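Take a look at the protein record below and flag anything odd:
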Amino acid sequence: MKTEILAMILAGGKGSRLGKLTQDIAKPAVPFGGKYRIIDFTLSNCINSNISNVGVVTQYEPLVLNAHLGNGESWGLNGMNSDLTILQPFSSNEGSKWFEGTAHAIFQNIDYIDRIDPEYVLILSGDHIYTMDYEKMLEEHKQNEASLTVSVLEVPFEEASRFGIMNTDETNRIVEFEEKPEQPKSNLASMGIYIFDWEYLKEVLLENKEEDIEMLDFGQHVIPTYIERDKKVYAYRFNGYWKDVGTVESLWQANMEFIDPENELNMRERDWKITTKHQVSSPHFVAENATVNDALIANGCHVSGEVNNSIISTDSEIGEGAQIIDSVIMSGAKIGKNAVISKAIVGENAHIGESQIIKGNEKIAVVGNSEMVGVCLDEAQ
C-alpha cells in the first residue's frame, strides 16, 4: 500500500544563539521542561496525529540526539507499520552530501522518500515547542486541492519583519511571500511547517541538478517558485501555543511558562501526551528543611534547599541552604550548599560549588553543560 504521508523532521540545527547550551549538542536535543528534549514535541505531534513514518534529518553534533531517538521505540515508531529513520549527511560518487539548506536536505534524501513512496510529505522543524494536530492541516490541504500548504501564525505587526510573511487572498491562498520585509503587508508568519504533494516537489527539487537552478531553501527558493508558477499554495492558520526557543531568553521564558499548570500547552492533557525517552531514576526526594514553591521536580532529584518558580530536571541535586529562584536546572546538575541561582539556566551535569552566586538580570545567566563553577577538587570528586 502507498503511504499517505511521511514526516521529515529537520533536526540538524546548530542553535548558535543558545551559546554554551549547544556547544556539544544539536539544538533539538537541548533539554526542556525537566524531563524532555525539544524534539520530543514534534515527534509526539506526529504520533498524536497518526503519522507513523518519520525521517529525522540530522547534521550538527548528532551524538546525543541520535542516542535519544534510538529506533523510535519511545514514540511507538518501531512497529510493523511504523518507522523512525535517522538521516545523516553522507558521501557518494557525486561528492559531499553536507546539507546546505532546508530544501537541499530534502533533495539529498529523495531516495529515502521514494522508498517510503508517500503521496504527501510533511516538513517539520525539530526545534520548536508546541502541540499541533497535523491531520487537520492535511485535511485542509486536501480540501483546497493544494500543491503546497504552509502553516502560519499571526504575530504582532511590530515583530512581523523578523519572519517570512505570507500575503493571502480572501480564500487563504498565498499570493505573495516576503522574507523578513521592512514594511510587512500582513502578520501571517511562516512556522516552517509545510505539506507538499511529493511528486511535484520532487520535480521542482530535481531541477536544481538538471538546470543548475538554486533550490536550497524552502522560504527563499521553493515557495516563491510555486507562487510564480501559479501552483495552489494555501495558508493554514494555527491558533495554539508555539514558541521558537532559539535564544537563551526564549528558552528560559518557555520553561517558566511550562511551570504554570494553566499553560496553553496543557501538558496534563491525556489525549495529547508528550512522550520522551525515559531514563530509570528513583523518585525525587525533598528533605525536611527544604521548601518548594511553584516548581517542577523531576525523578531522581535530591532537594535540600529552597526552590521557587523553577524547574529541577532529572537526577539533579540541590544542596542544603541553596536557593534556586526563577531558574532551570538541567539533568544531572549539582548545586552546592548555600549557593544562590537566580534567573539562570544551568546546563546538564554542571556543578556549582558551595556559596557560589549565579544571577541573571536583564540577560539570563547561563552555565554550560558539564561546566564547573567555584568547585574545589574535593567537591568535584
